[in-house]
Design brief:
Length: 272
């Protein structure tokens, strides 16, 4: 149990080290909520087994919200139903300095594909090309945030004696970004460059790192900051382990340790 608690703390620290994807309301007019998060803070929440990464992040955000001295009356994961069918969920409602806030929480991993368009917002995609930044922004703007004003939400808000029109709406959108290997680094106008964590490379080009060592973290450990204290794989063993992932069109996040000791996060992608 102690080892599990320590590992959870490392995951929390990795989450804390992830910056907001943009500053203020420079993207889609969506205003970021600046929630303090300290790597030295001790996470003491209870986490269910087999929790998805997104839900784990929500627990971390919950912890930070509860620690904030100016936040009160926190309600989380409020499911909105119509005819006993859930039509959506409000991630968090609370008072911040007595102002009602509706907060939507997002944590993503995006890779930059320069071939997708001229607008940088359209060029960020998920590792397996199943989602994208622009789709998530559209969903936030046109579905998740408007749920607060849905007629089916009104009676939930009546419990708190708060009118939907009194809420300020915010997002907490954090992300780890990855650029093409040896690609252009000067691509940011709207996106926070501090979110860049590494690069991605296609399997057939991986031989450039044949003198390096590798580590394949579990999905929840994608949150972790890199560390030298893991069980490193040789290039040949690493390649043998990920070949099935690539064959099944899954792009794994890995760590690469260069001969000079420098460690980077990388995605090995099947689609380029």
């Amino acid at each position: 149990m102690r080892d599990k608690t320590i590992h959870l703390q490392f995951q929390y620290q990795g989450y804390c080290s992830t910056p907001n994807l943009w500053v203020g309301n420079t993207v889609y007019g969506l205003e970021q909520f600046n929630l303090p998060c300290s790597r030295t803070s001790k996470f003491n929440g209870v986490i269910a087994d087999k929790l998805r990464l997104g839900k784990l992040v929500e627990r971390f955000v919950s912890h930070d919200l509860k620690q904030h001295p100016e936040i009160s009356n926190l309600v989380e994961g409020l499911q909105i139903q119509k005819d006993k069918i859930t039509i959506g969920e409000l991630d968090a409602l609370f008072l911040f300095k007595k102002q009602p806030i509706h907060l939507e929480i997002v944590y993503k991993f995006y890779l930059y594909d320069p071939l997708l368009g001229d607008n940088e917002l359209y060029n960020w995609i998920g590792p397996n090309r199943k989602d994208s930044l622009i789709k998530k922004l559209d969903k936030l703007k046109n579905k998740q945030l408007p749920l607060l004003f849905n007629s089916n939400t009104k009676h939930y808000l009546n419990r708190f004696n708060i009118n939907a029109n009194h809420f300020d709406q915010r997002v907490l959108f954090r992300a780890q970004l990855f650029l093409p290997y040896q690609g252009d680094k000067n691509i940011f106008n709207l996106i926070n460059p501090e979110c860049v964590q590494g690069f991605y490379i296609k399997m057939k080009d991986l031989d450039v790192f044949k003198t390096s060592k590798f580590y394949i973290p579990s999905k929840l450990d994608w949150l972790l900051e890199v560390s030298a204290h893991v069980n490193w794989l040789t290039y040949s063993k690493f390649k043998a382990e990920i070949i099935n992932l690539i064959t099944n069109k899954t792009s794994p996040l890995c760590w690469v340790k260069h001969p000079n000791g420098i460690i980077k996060k990388i995605f090995i992608v099947w689609w380029t």
